[in-house]
Amino acid sequence: MTGGVTGMDDFLIKFFPKVYRRKIRAHENNYCKFDDQNLQLFTSSLYLSALAASFLASKVCSARGRKPTILLASVFFLVGSALSSLAQKLWMVIIGRVLMGVGVGFGNEAVPLFLSEIAPVQHRGAVNILFQLFVTIGILIANLVNFATLSIHPNGWRVSLGLAIVPAALLLVGSIVITETPMSLIERNREDEGKRVLQKIRGIEHVDDELEHIKEGCKQAKLVRHPFKELRKKQSVPPLVIGISMQVFQQMTGINAVMFYAPILFQTMGFKSGGSLLSAVIIGLVNVFSTLVSIYGVDKFGRRALLLQACAQMFISQMAIGIILILQLGDANSLPKGSAVLVVMLTCTFVMSFAWSWGPLGWLIPSETFPLETRTAGFAFAVSSNMLFTFILAQAFLSMLCHLRAYVFLFFSAWIVVMGLFVVFLLPETKGVSIDMVVESVWKKHPLWKKFMDDDDSMA
């Protein structure tokens, strides 16, 4: 995680000396010591390039398949990680981050689609959430690495950035070993191979019923020559609104602001560098184990129940953190020990609820709501929306922290209220609905969205 690296003195001394000098004079203004646009660009540049790459990834995913798209993602990760760790100038670090961002764009486009398409419908939610689970495991490992390399001078930050090569290499090997999805093969006129793969992943010979559903979906998809234009039709409004909104709201919980900058955030609260990184490790552990709850609960309780419960828990946590900091953390003060521990606990409850709800479901729901003919194009809009708002928040959070101070937590709390209302009135339940039946079983039965599902192709 870059938040751990940007909190390392050696990294700041080499690339951001002004920020380092401001940090050691923290008594001047506790909230603004890390407010630097270039420092934020180090984190956010990855998501800006991922935003652009997601649309190219959509075309690659449709034309070449999910497997080659994941392979390309791993190559960009490898090159970007190597360049970042060997950087001598700031521009080298930024270019490395940009290349890794291209990998993120390709990976986030292909992996959720891959998981949704190979999973049996009754376990699709749990299988898809494995994507988010391994993201949380990666975050935890990154925090552990940052904690371990903090005492390695002056190149601990190089070790932290360079070790990203390991998961990139594993992704490369995995992309070679995995099979293509049956849906992607049949979509590209490789029906016999698609049937063999379907038999293999289901473990049975008789797959004719599912195969016919896939073939019918692919047949309808082939009638659409320009899927991005298809998204302009009013039948595409419901999944497009849901897909984009889920990604935007996922970021507006404030989760990435917390996860990216947890070490810096805790230093702002008065923790030392080691203590702040240790707190980030604790949060990472909570993140991983809470995602396991989602794997169990998403196909048992449904998507809406998890999202609404999490909205309540996240709202209470964010409001409580904001009130504690407003009352007890001034510009140049640190929190009392008891309050600091309470803030860490509240941060954990916030991360906990996000990890079993908006984190994994932000990817699951868009991957299962688009019909086949617009799946890759629609999902590209969802991914790009995620990357855009992640970029905006990563670029702006430290400045928001400086100007809004503790009220930044109340800002995110207000968004969580909006998210809850969105789930209540606009989000349909997709538990147990096969992808090829989503129009008939979901959109045509929703009190609002069914109005978009008539035969008139013009926009409403």
From TrEMBL:
User: Does the UniProt entry include the keyword Transport?
Assistant: yes
- CDD domains under this entry? MFS_STP (cd17361)
Q: Its GO CC terms?
A: membrane
The answer to whether keyword Membrane applies is: yes
Which Gene3D superfamilies does this one have? MFS general substrate transporter like domains
- Record's PROSITE patterns? MFS (PS50850), SUGAR_TRANSPORT_1 (PS00216), SUGAR_TRANSPORT_2 (PS00217)
Checking InterPro entries in the record gives:
MFS_dom, MFS_STP/MST-like_plant, MFS_sugar_transport-like, MFS_trans_sf, STP/PLT_plant, Sugar/inositol_transpt, Sugar_transporter_CS
What GO molecular functions are on record for this protein?
Answer: monosaccharide transmembrane transporter activity; symporter activity
Alphabetically sorted, this entry's keywords are: Membrane, Sugar transport, Symport, Transmembrane, Transmembrane helix, Transport
Domain named Major facilitator superfamily (MFS) profile: residues: 1-431
State the compartments where it is located. Membrane
**What is this protein called in UniProt?**
Major facilitator superfamily (MFS) profile domain-containing protein
Which organism does this sequence originate in? Nepenthes gracilis
